[in-house]
Amino acid sequence: MKNWMFFLALALAFSCERIPQTTEGLYQKGFEALKEEDWGKATNYLEKALEGELSPKEKERTKFALANAYFNDGNFEEAAIQYEEFLELYPASPFAKDALFRLGVSYLNLIKGPEWDQTFTEKAYQIFEEFLKRYPTDGRASKAKEYRKIARKILAEHELYIAGTYDMVHKFTASIRRYERVLREYSDVEPMDRLKYLLGRAYYFTSIQAEEEIGRLRRQLEKEKERLNSDNPEERRVAKSRIELIGKDIESWKRIAEENRKVGEKILSEVAKKYPNSPYGVKARRILLGERILNVEPVINPLKRSIWWKIKETL
């Protein structure tokens, strides 16, 4: 008898599971799961509820709740997608302000660091910029400014990372362009002693790049000179033209090396004088005294998360 009752209860349980749940039931269960902080169940129920017939207000509330469930579960990629869709569907919603802020935080959490692709960094910066324009008096404005600054810092460090890569292979004319861009666009988030030192060093050591380029051009020049002995007059004409162009390139590199050395000396002297106790001021002096310091400076990653960053943003 007991066995019979057990199997009957089991059969009833399975049959109940197979009974299709109403949209309203899924809606209610989804919000109950949110209260219990069971994010997995919440996303499951709310997604299914959105597939059914809900009132416009219920759909708006459910879509926002779904995004929050993904956010609280740490699935920031899916949370970003849901917040984006929510803001596109409900731009005038009373939840739009919260969705916009959390969208920015989601993007921040998707950033790997300065060495990687910066798509999420750029998006985070744009979102917090938009948040501050729309809601300048919001209680989270100070945090939005802080997060916007973090995004700018990462973008600046990304430029410095690329510049450092150029330095490593002695392409100083390319790194100079990167350093000057950071100086022009990100001086508010970069220590000036560090930035000026890196720029001055790149100018100063352009002579190394020039030596390597001139060496390459001279090897090319020798090959072209050999072609002057060709029996083909057209080949001799082309060789003569190339020899002339190579000679101009060699002189150009000599001029660039000389000019950049002067610029580098000036910048490094300013760094040494203005920041005498800074490690960059010290290194600037050492270079001016004849030391060849070419080690790549490590990038600074502001997303090495401290305890506060792990605390979830609350609405």
TrEMBL record:
InterPro entries with a match to the protein in the record: BamD, BamD-like, TPR-like_helical_dom_sf, TPR_rpt
SUPFAM superfamilies, per database record: TPR-like
Keywords, comma-separated and alphabetical: Cell outer membrane, Coiled coil, Membrane, Signal, TPR repeat
Membrane among keywords: yes
TPR repeat segments: 60-93
Pfam families tied to this protein: YfiO
Residue stretches in coiled coil: 207-238
Domain Outer membrane lipoprotein BamD-like, chain residue ranges per copy: 23-208
Highest taxon of the lineage: Bacteria
Keyword Membrane attached: yes
NCBIfam families the UniProt entry points to: OM_YfiO (TIGR03302)
UniProt protein name: Beta-barrel assembly machine subunit BamD
Organism: Phorcysia thermohydrogeniphila
